[in-house]
């Protein structure tokens, strides 16, 4: 007997093949092109701010007569590094304190300066846990969950008010999709927060992609409590 021959797979039309090849090429080329564009856009932005203040004799563009991308960015990085180095010694610290004393005596400016400085010190300090953890909270209603970045445990007057209510509250940042640069500051009970193993970078990709890029997870599910770093973990 002749072997049974199954149905032949349907032939793919030329138009469908061209479309599939185009989409495959788009997936490969688009991320590369967007990354290159964003990189050069950032470099041009930094150059536009710094290059005009570089003395002509120190500007390589003066000698080569061509625009060199990244000159301003390199100068800015070197300048900031030098300022940080000088700010750690006695003389540099005295100069910084003198400058801060002037800003602290200037109305309106002192409020802005103190707020910005506090934000940078909180986020950039070595032992900071701010925005290094990701979690889930029920929002906007029970049974519906939203991704949040954990900022810090409630402090100051807020902590006193919450303690009077017998609650340990945590400040979280709830970003929107697909642009996670704006959002809401919420205070939620620590026992209502579910910690996730994903990194802030993975969470940002998840938000920007609208849930399409989901990070892999190979660990155990974390209990819905905060780590000991926040002082609210249950035993």
UniProtKB/TrEMBL annotation:
Membrane-spanning ranges: 21-43, 63-86
Tagged with keyword Transmembrane: yes
Pfam families reported in the protein's UniProt record: DUF502
Keywords: Membrane, Transmembrane, Transmembrane helix
Keyword Transmembrane helix set for record: yes
Protein name per the record: DUF502 domain-containing protein
Source organism (scientific name): Xaviernesmea oryzae
């Amino acid at each position: 007997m002749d072997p049974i021959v199954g149905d032949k797979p349907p032939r793919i039309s030329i138009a469908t093949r061209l479309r599939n090849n185009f989409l495959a090429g788009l997936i490969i080329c688009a991320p590369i092109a967007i990354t290159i564009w964003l990189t050069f856009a950032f470099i041009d932005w930094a150059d536009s701010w710094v290059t005009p203040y570089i003395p002509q004799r120190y500007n390589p563009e003066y000698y080569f007569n061509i625009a060199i991308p990244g000159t301003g960015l390199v100068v800015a990085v070197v300048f900031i590094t030098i300022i940080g180095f000088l700010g750690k010694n006695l003389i540099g610290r005295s100069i910084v304190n003198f400058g801060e004393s002037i800003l602290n005596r200037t109305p309106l400016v002192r409020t802005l300066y103190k707020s910005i400085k506090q934000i940078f010190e909180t986020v950039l300090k070595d032992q900071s846990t701010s925005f290094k953890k990701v979690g889930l909270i029920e929002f906007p209603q029970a049974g519906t969950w939203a991704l949040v970045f954990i900022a810090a445990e409630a402090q100051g007057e807020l902590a006193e008010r919450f303690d009077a209510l017998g609650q340990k509250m945590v400040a979280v940042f709830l970003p929107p999709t697909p642009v996670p640069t704006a959002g809401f500051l919420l205070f939620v009970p620590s026992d209502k927060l579910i910690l996730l193993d994903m990194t802030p970078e993975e969470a940002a990709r998840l938000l920007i992609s609208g849930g399409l890029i989901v990070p892999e997870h190979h660990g155990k599910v974390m209990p819905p409590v905060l780590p000991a770093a926040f002082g609210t973990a249950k035993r």
